Amino acid sequence: MLATPENSVAGEWSSTLLSSYSNLMLYSAYDISVRTDRSSGSQPTRPEESTIGQLAAAPFSSAIGEEAFYRGLVYERTLRAHGRPAARLLDAALFPLVHLPTDMQRGFKPPTVAFNVAWRSAMTPAFDATYDRGGLPLSVALHYWSNVLLAMSHWWFYGGHM
Fold first, then answer.
1. Residue 28 within a domain
2. N or C: which end of the chain has fewer CB within 10 A?
3. Chain segment 14-67, per-residue pLDDT in tens
């Protein structure tokens, strides 16, 4: 099928829906996990820590959803309308800030939140450059490994306990 403005917009909105659904599922599972653990008095766990399969799936599903939304929709639309510098600047500001409420909800300490903002601020230009060179598949791959490394750093910061 040839790309037309009509099906291109439909593709962008389907990416948005995929991103929203992916994040909703992850955050819903996280909320259920935290509520369950708090009611029993044990340490909160995240769904991505439950099994090895989920440990691999959580960073991948969030990478797909976030890349589809931030690079495939926000970055791409801003790039077309205002050029590359504006698109990268908006993305570099928006992407780390959107994650702040989640980091705070998870109960991360202020130094960890600051580290997360710095990490995402540094990785966002890399995601953009990777997207420019190889499209969504390449930026999803980089985003996945960024998520894995960030999760490993959290594990290390908290001495094996998150």
1. yes
2. N
3. 444 444 444 444 444 444 444 444 444 444 455 445 555 555 667 777 889 899
**How far apart are the C-alpha atoms of 13 and 84, rounded to whole Å?**
21
Dist. CA 137–CA 140, nearest whole Å: 5
Asked if the structure places residue 162 within a domain, the reply is no
Amino acid at 10: A
Write out the two tokens for 28. Answer: 């819903």
- Pull the structure tokens for residue 60: 């991948």
Is residue 20 in some structural domain? yes
Query: Pick from 73, 68, 71: which is nearest to 9 by CA?
Result: 73
Residue 141 placed within a domain: yes
Q: Which domain holds residue 52?
A: 5-157
Q: Whole-model pTM?
A: 0.65
Provide the number of structural domains found in the chain. Answer: 1
